[in-house]
């Protein structure tokens, strides 16, 4: 044994090859925390002085290789000064990774499982890499608002070429084995049980002189092999394209490309300094802080969901009531993730629509090579269409997804309850109607709760699991378990009109209706809110959701919260609805829609919409960007605060994550509770007071005022 630590062990094999094995004790995965880095430092120094070692084999004792850096350490690490962070990064590169790369003998890495971020950067330090079949590798740091800092932007371009490296790094791409081999990121792909043997074989052949490992190493340490014209074309073209794709709110992808461009003419050691500079600049941004917190919050959210559902048995057979687009989407997601599902409707047309929706989604996956024709057929076969309740006595969980009408839902839920077993969980995919109200006619309300999916089901990660007053813990656990099995992010909330996400959305839309009433231009409002970071502005959102859906939801919310969500004027949405301008579903709403070459609706401004609104709005007024953002976001955030104070959600994290995953709240802003924290609670309350005369939507709660007075925050 050459070295034995808590994370790394180094053993000298019979042929003089040292096997460096990562095996972080007490963890299910290997990751680069500070302790592991310090052990790697010691290992590098030990190996560099050894006269017995002829080669190095890097392996992992776990199913993964290395998942990357320990992100829980980023908060403390990034809170230091830029100078301190830069010094730390340079030290790690110079005295740890460079030492491994510069060992006086050949080296190879056996990548037996996922190798991301620092994990791939470790593998890039060795001369050769062997990858197990089906394993993904990549440098996803830009998804955290930063860029590689352990040499990824330096070594990867020199190994796979600048074009490929830019694509991988700027997109945070996780490459599959076929692509990794094709571009030269790895030297061989073998079955998982052969990966160590193959990597060891490469080391032995390099020792024997079959491979010129020194020449390969020198290529990694020198400048990129691009002339000035080639470098200009590659980097300038890439920067322009990536800037357009990433948008101005996400600086990491372009910064990474700029770092690679600067380093193109530099030696490895100089290039690593350029990388460190870019890394440090990004590490100190609010964007990286929020995206890192988002990653950690996601982990906490999923851990909480798994804890809630830990004692629940799996849903072996599900059912959805009501086919169509929504029912078909739920059926597809369930079947695709491995849970067979019955899709019931009262007529064949609905069944056909639901099956077509599932088939269309699967066909897209097949056309992209994501699934085989055989797998597509198997998934479709696990969706059982039905016009009757024939096999519902064998179902573990039912999702009701019929029209958003309480009388219709009461009838369907009562009918379904009579057809299922006493232990079957009955859920409603309602978006606004109180779960307690829907439970009124049911015999077993303890087995009933809400399971609110967001459209389109296959894309939107959030599922709101809504607990009614009589819902049992067992019913919640089983429903959360099913949501996890479907690949969703479940957030458990308590019952109220609109629950969590839609309850918070409608004040935002109410504030938008007020702005239009007061003379704002909805096209300008859309542009400003999209510039703020929303995926679409409020008028466009109304059209996408459907004006009729919005009007119906607003009526439900007005009944539930008349003090602040009722209208004492005719809203722009009601005007659109009365004139049969329903949005994308019939080609006209605030905008008009025409299909593009791909068959997708493309919006265009429509003077007719402006004319229709003139009788119910004030004279046009040019509101400032600040006022538009403040009026919409104050109303939105105050309702989020109320939901937290009333216990609709358990924590600020649940609120923020639900609104990011369910509505597309700008991730780089961290969620509404972090948005308030960043502004300062006192300043936020002052903004609310500025608009309090507009109504109760803008009136801060007493508890929020107390927080402001005491200098408190929602997050520590």
If you had to describe this structure to a student in words, what would you say it looks like?
It is a single chain. This protein has 716 residues and is of the alpha/beta class. It has three domains: 3-284, 2-enoyl-CoA Hydratase, Chain A, domain 1 (Alpha-Beta Complex), CATH 3.90.226.10; 314-495, NAD(P)-binding Rossmann-like Domain (Rossmann fold, 3-Layer(aba) Sandwich), CATH 3.40.50.720; 502-648 and 680-710, N-(1-d-carboxylethyl)-l-norvaline Dehydrogenase, domain 2 (Orthogonal Bundle). Helices cover 51% and strands 12% of the residues. An eight-stranded mixed β-sheet has the order 13-12-11-14-15-16-17-18, sandwiched between helices. It has a seven-stranded mixed β-sheet with strand order 1-2-3-4-5-7-10, sandwiched between helices. Helix 27 (625-645) crosses helix 29 (672-679). The radius of gyration is 28 Å and the shape is globular. Residues 318-496 form the 3-hydroxyacyl-CoA dehydrogenase NAD binding domain. Residues 498-593, 628-689 form the 3-hydroxyacyl-CoA dehydrogenase C-terminal domain. InterPro entries: 3-OHacyl-CoA_DH_CS (IPR006180), 3-OHacyl-CoA_DH_NAD-bd (IPR006176), 3HC_DH_C (IPR006108), 6-PGluconate_DH-like_C_sf (IPR008927), ClpP/crotonase-like_dom_sf (IPR029045), Enoyl-CoA_hydra/iso (IPR001753), FA_oxidation_alpha_subunit (IPR050136), FadB (IPR012799).
């Amino acid at each position: 044994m050459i070295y034995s630590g808590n994370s790394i062990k180094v053993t000298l094999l019979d042929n003089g090859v040292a096997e460096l094995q990562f095996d972080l004790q007490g963890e299910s995965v290997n990751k680069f925390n500070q302790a592991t880095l310090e052990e790697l430092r010691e290992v590098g120094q030990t190996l560099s002085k050894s006269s017995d070692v002829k080669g190095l084999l890097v392996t992992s004792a776990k199913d993964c290789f290395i998942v990357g850096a320990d992100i829980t350490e980023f908060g403390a690490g990034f809170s230091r000064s830029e100078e301190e962070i830069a010094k730390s990064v340079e030290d790690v590169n110079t005295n740890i990774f460079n030492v491994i790369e510069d060992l006086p003998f050949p080296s190879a890495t056996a990548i037996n499982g996922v190798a991301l971020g620092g994990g791939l950067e470790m593998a890039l330090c060795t001369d050769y890499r062997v990858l197990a079949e089906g394993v993904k590798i990549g440098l996803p740091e830009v998804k955290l608002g930063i860029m590689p800092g352990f040499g990824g932007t330096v070594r990867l371009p020199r190994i796979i070429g600048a074009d490929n490296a830019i694509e991988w790094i700027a997109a945070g791409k996780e490459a599959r084995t076929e692509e990794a081999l094709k571009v030269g990121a790895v030297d061989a792909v073998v079955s998982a049980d052969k990966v160590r043997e193959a990597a060891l074989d490469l080391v032995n052949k390099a020792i024997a002189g079959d491979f010129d490992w020194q020449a390969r190493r020198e290529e990694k340490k020198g400048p990129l092999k691009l002339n000035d014209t080639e470098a200009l074309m590659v980097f300038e073209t890439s920067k322009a394209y990536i800037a357009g794709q990433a948008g101005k709110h996400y600086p990491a992808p372009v910064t990474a490309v700029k770092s690679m461009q600067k380093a193109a003419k530099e030696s490895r050691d100089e290039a690593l300094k350029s990388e460190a500079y870019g890394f440090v600049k990004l590490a100190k941004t609010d964007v990286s802080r929020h995206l890192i917190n988002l990653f950690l919050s996601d982990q906490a959210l999923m851990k909480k969901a798994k804890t809630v559902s830990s004692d629940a048995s799996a849903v072996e057979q599900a059912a959805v009531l009501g086919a169509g687009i929504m029912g078909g989407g739920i059926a597809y997601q369930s079947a695709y993730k491995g849970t067979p599902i019955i899709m019931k409707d009262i007529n064949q047309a609905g069944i056909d629509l639901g099956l077509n929706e599932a088939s269309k989604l699967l066909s897209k996956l097949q056309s992209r090579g994501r699934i085989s024709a055989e797998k597509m057929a198997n998934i479709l076969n696990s969706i059982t269409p039905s016009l009757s309740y024939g096999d519902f006595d064998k179902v573990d969980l039912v999702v009701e997804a019929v029209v958003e009408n309480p009388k219709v839902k009461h009838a369907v839920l009562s009918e379904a309850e009579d057809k299922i077993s006493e232990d079957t969980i009955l859920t409603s995919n309602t978006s606004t109607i109180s779960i307690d109200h829907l439970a009124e006619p049911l015999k077993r309300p303890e087995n009933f709760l809400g399971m609110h999916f967001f459209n389109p089901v296959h894309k939107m990660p959030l599922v709101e699991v809504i607990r009614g007053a009589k819902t049992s813990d067992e019913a919640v656990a089983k429903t959360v378990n099913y949501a996890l099995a479907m690949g969703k992010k479940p957030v458990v909330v308590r019952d109220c009109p609109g629950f969590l996400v839609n309850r918070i959305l409608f004040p935002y839309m109410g504030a938008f209706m007020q702005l239009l009433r007061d003379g704002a231009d909805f096209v300008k409002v859309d542009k400003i809110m999209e510039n703020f970071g929303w995926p679409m502005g409020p008028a466009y959102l109304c059209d996408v959701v459907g004006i009729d859906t919005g009007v119906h939801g607003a009526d439900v919310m007005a009944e539930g919260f008349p003090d602040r969500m009722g209208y004492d004027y005719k809203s722009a949405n009601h005007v659109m609805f009365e004139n049969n301008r329903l949005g994308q579903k019939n080609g006209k709403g605030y905008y008009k829609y025409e299909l593009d070459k791909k068959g997708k609706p493309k919006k265009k401004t429509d003077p007719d919409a402006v004319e229709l609104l003139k009788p119910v709005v004030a004279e046009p007024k040019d509101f400032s960007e600040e006022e538009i953002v403040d009026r919409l976001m104050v109303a939105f955030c105050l309702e989020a605060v109320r939901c937290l104070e009333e216990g609709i959600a358990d924590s600020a994290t649940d609120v923020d994550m639900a609104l990011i995953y369910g509505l597309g709240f700008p991730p780089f802003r961290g969620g509404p509770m972090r948005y308030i924290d960043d502004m300062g609670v006192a300043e936020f309350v002052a903004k609310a007071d500025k608009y309090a005369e507009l109504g109760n939507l803008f009136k801060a709660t007493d508890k929020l005022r107390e927080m402001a007075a005491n200098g408190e925050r929602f997050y520590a």
